[in-house]
Design brief:
It is a single chain. The chain is mostly helical. The chain has one domain. It is 61% helix and 0% strand. The protein contains four helices and no strands. The longest helix is centred in the middle third of the chain and has 27 residues. About 7% of the residues have low confidence. It comes from Nitrosospira multiformis. This is TraK protein. Pfam families: DUF5338.
Length: 115
């Protein structure tokens, strides 16, 4: 977290800001840790429960889920496709088959007719 982000979160927390502003500041202060925990495979509930027990997050579980979806998951989803497209080579269509091999024809050749 940058120095400015830390100062903003402290100011919002200590000020008589709205409850939503305090909850958002607390979440943003923990965002990198939350993202890392998600990448490590922990569930959103386990992360919320731990942060709530440590009193780092005071918001409800439902509000925490909304923040995770809005500020971590959806932001990464919108950023990810742009970088994916830049580095992925186009894949061949599924229906394109290798034509160097056996080819079936339903009409018999004249010289192969059996009488």
């Amino acid at each position: 977290m940058s120095n400015l982000s830390y100062r903003i979160s402290v100011r919002v927390r200590d000020n008589r800001s709205s409850r939503n502003a305090r909850n958002l500041a607390a979440f943003l202060a923990q965002r990198d840790e939350i993202r890392n925990a998600l990448e490590d495979g922990w569930t959103v509930y386990q992360i919320w429960e731990t942060l709530h027990a440590e009193q780092k997050i005071t918001t409800s579980y439902n509000a925490f889920c909304s923040q995770v979806n809005r500020l971590i998951i959806k932001r990464e989803e919108t950023a990810l496709p742009k970088t994916k497209r830049a580095y992925q080579s186009p894949s061949p269509p599924r229906h394109a088959a290798n034509t160097a091999g056996f080819t079936f024809s339903s009409t018999p050749l004249k010289d192969e007719e059996i009488l």
